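Hi C.,

You asked whether I'd gotten around to modeling the 217-residue construct. I have! Everything is below, sequence then structure, no commentary in between.
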Amino acid sequence: MGAAGQHRDGDLGALLAACDAATLGLAAAEPDVIVVVGGAAATAAYDGSAAGSLREYGVGCAVGTGEPVLPLSLTVGSWLLRRAGLAGGRARFQAVARDTAVADCLRLGDELARQAPRVAMLAMGDGPARRAVGIEGAADPEAERYDAEVAAAFGGADPARLARLAPALDDELVVAGRAAWQVLAGAAEGRRLAGLLRCAVARYEVSYLVASWDVIG
């Protein structure tokens, strides 16, 4: 294995470790409800026992009970909750259509945050997948600018900054996470927050960011 391969495998390890740390942080908050929000083809709500599978992606992983109904984002979110021992009655799953308007995302986030006195949210969504044009690893300045904006919003626990992300760029930059992030922004609006950007990597030409927000007042 060459140095580049070692670096890329290290990125995956760092990404998973950051995801585990973030979900364990949700457990430490002792929420009444944990809502996993993820981008999908259509908006839909699922209960904590809903099933999902990664077999169509060549990965022998399944979660929940019954026929798989969860979209990819929520399947991965459910898998992360189970790694942290958080699966069960407290979990709820919310798919949000990737083309949902900003105002509707914010409204949905506010509604989800009002489900219980203490609500934790795990927002699942990929950053730009347009990392290169025809050449693997080649820089894409527009995608990098978008990444920097999202990273600043997550690291600074700035829901208003997330709310300003333009839906018009979703198709142009192949962004799958914008709607889910703006649901998070709606849930967090008006709260004093502390943010921690745990990881920011690009793998298979897709950007992945992991961050934690804690309510401090």
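If it helps when you're writing up: Residues 3-215 form a domain with the Protocatechuate 4,5-dioxygenase; Chain B fold (CATH 3.40.830.10).

Thanks,
B.
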